[in-house]
Specification:
- With 205 residues, this protein is of the alpha+beta class.
- The chain contains 9 helices and 4 strands, in the order H-H-H-H-E-H-E-H-E-E-H-H-H.
- Helices cover 54% and strands 12% of the residues.
- Strands 2-1-3-4 form a 4-stranded mixed β-sheet, with helices on one face.
- Helix 3 packs parallel to helix 5 and helix 7 runs antiparallel to helix 8.
- The chain starts with a helix and ends in a 7-residue tail after the last helix.
- It has one domain: Glutaredoxin, CATH 3.40.30.10.
- Pfam families: Thioredoxin_9.
Length: 205
């Protein structure tokens, strides 16, 4: 696993480079991923607007900021995504804002379709759901936790709907976007702070 992760990290890009790439894709009416369709290009354009909005509007409380800054283990957050992914457009900017508050956290991004072997090791209920955050301890190179594809409350919301209706409908997906907009990233912040609290040095020994 370590060699695969190291290989993926070598081919990764920063959050800012990811934003720049998505801007270029929008200009070219395209998207990341093996499949190229008008719909995926449109999702990519929509997601760029979402990410730019969240980059400006995400608010992290003073209490949450203090807890994030207390984390003192050196880690890399390797995120698997694609430009067209709606959940990613809401989740990744929040993860980036958290990482900006602590120099011990370094964000790197790779694309699912270019990293199928890596993706296959971090499935969600057997599926290649994205975005997927892989938390790597920089000293040992070990994976210490994962997160995603959705924050905990959204995951519960999705699971309840699937249990009742069997699959997600277009109307539900629209409702899920409203949930993200109403929550304003706070569930993600709470989830990640809880995960950071679990990443004690003893985990790596």
């Amino acid at each position: 696993m370590k060699s695969l992760i190291n290989s993926s990290l070598r081919n990764s890009i920063s959050y800012q480079n990811y934003i720049d790439l998505v801007k270029q894709l929008v200009e070219n009416n395209s998207s990341t991923g093996a499949e190229k369709t008008e719909a995926l290009a449109n999702y990519t354009k929509l997601n760029l607007r979402r990410m730019k909005r969240w980059d400006k509007k995400i608010n992290i409380s003073e209490e949450a900021e203090n807890r994030i800054k207390q984390f003192n283990n050196s880690v890399t957050w390797l995120i698997i995504t694609e430009s067209w992914c709606g959940d990613a457009a809401h989740v990744i900017p929040v993860l980036n804002k958290i990482a900006e508050l602590n120099s011990n956290i370094d964000i790197k991004i790779v694309f699912r379709d270019e990293n199928r072997e890596l993706m296959s090791m971090f499935l969600t209920n057997g599926g290649e759901a994205i975005p997927k955050l892989i938390m790597i301890d920089n000293e040992s190179g070990e994976v210490v936790n994962t997160y995603g594809p959705r924050p905990s409350e959204a995951t519960s919301y999705v699971n309840r709907f699937k249990a009742m209706h069997g699959k997600l409908t277009p109307d539900f997906k629209e409702d899920l976007q409203h949930w993200y907009n109403k929550d304003k990233g706070q569930n993600i912040i709470d989830d990640v702070i809880e995960l950071l609290g679990e990443l004690k040095p003893t985990v790596y020994q």
